[in-house]
Amino acid sequence: MAQLPKISVYLITKNEGRHLDEVLASVAGADEIVLVDSGSTDNTLAVAEQHSARIIHQPWLGYARQKAYALEQCQNDWVINLDGDEVLPQGAFEEIRQRIAQDDVNGLYLAHDDIFMGHSLPGHRHHRFRRVYRKSKAKWNTSLKVHEHIEVEPPLAHLPIDVKHYGYDSAHGYMDKLNKYSLLKAKQREEQGRSCSLARVLLIFPLMFIKFYFIRRMFLAGWRGFIKANIDAFHFFLTEAKLYERQHRRKRGDPVEKSER
Question: Do 101 and 204 lie in a common domain?
Answer without folding.
Answer: no
